[in-house]
Amino acid sequence: MKNENELKELVRQKYSEIALQDKETNQSSCCGAGGCSTEVYNIMSDDYTTLEGYNPDADLGLGCGLPTEFAQIKAGDVVVDLGSGAGNDCFVARNLAGPTGKVIGVDFTPAMIDKARKNAEKLNFHNVEFRQGDIENMPISANVADVVISNCVLNLVPNKDAVIKDIFRVLKPGGHFSISDVVLVGSLPEKIRNAAEMYAGCVSGAVQKQIYLELIELNEFSNITIQKEKAIVIPNDILINYLTEDEITSYNNSGAGIFSVTVFAQKPVAACVPGGGCC
């Protein structure tokens, strides 16, 4: 059993490789994990191409939803994107926040930060910045963000409670998040949960849907809402790398499932983080 630091380093290494892959390679796998499928082209990510602000150079095909579609970003908002990758969600958020807004992307993979900064420079965006850091302890002051977004990232983090606590810290009182993530319903086979490649590809790091929602509630967020939910079907020609044919049949008939959910929650207006200047 790997400890938290070993798991985080595994993900960092994998996403350093992914930063150099093309979108087609990433989309035909599970969050860029490899093991291309002949059954489907796109397992998890949604289509960004119709959204204003979309830039194909920043789209690595790694998401599992469209959090910006539900994030209620307004002109002038400060938006923080957790696990910002090559900048895809940041650039869409920038279009919504407008010239008076600001977007901060946080990613702990140097290769992703470098790629995102180059994309921003090419687009001549001056109100989008990318900071290297851990989303469990963001390089952002308390009570700064109007909106926090994230796309298929929290499932990669071993200590999800710490991330949710830090989201609460950086949000302004009354601010909110809209996060797309991978969750589980029922029991996932241990062979998938323990496979390193599948961990870096979003599945083995996911937790039960009910536990995920309870973590948000325990951290004092309010108005918790599932904005979108969809089943994630991993084709048999990927599962065969981890399970026998009999195990695949048993899993497919078990009722267990992998889902993409987009969750909204709000930091109460009365909330105040000690040391944040609002107490």
Given helix and strand content, the structural type is alpha/beta
Average pLDDT, to the nearest integer? 83
CATH class: Alpha Beta
Strand content: 15-25%
Task: Identify the quaternary structure here.
Answer: single chain
Q: Given the structure, what is the number of helices?
A: 11
| CA radius of gyration | 18 Å
Percentage of residues in helical conformation: 25-40%
Distance between the termini: 42 Å
CATH superfamily: Vaccinia Virus protein VP39
Q: Which strand order does the major sheet show?
A: 3-2-1-4-5-7-6
Annotated CATH topology: Rossmann fold
Number of strands: 7
Q: Give the SSE order as H and E letters.
A: HHHEHEHEEHEHHHEHHE
User: Largest sheet, described in full?
Assistant: 7 strands, mixed
Structure overview:
- It is a single chain.
- This protein starts with a helix and ends in a 13-residue tail after the last strand.
- Strand 2 (102-107), helix 5 and strand 3 (128-132) form a beta-alpha-beta unit.
- It has 279 residues and is an alpha/beta fold.
- The chain has helices spanning 4-18, 23-27, 67-70, 88-97, 110-123, 160-170, 190-193, 196-200, 209-218, 236-239, 245-252, and strands at 78-82, 102-107, 128-132, 145-151, 171-185, 222-232, 257-266.
- It has one domain (4-265): 3-Layer(aba) Sandwich (Rossmann fold), CATH 3.40.50.150.
- A seven-stranded mixed sheet has the order 3-2-1-4-5-7-6, sandwiched between helices.
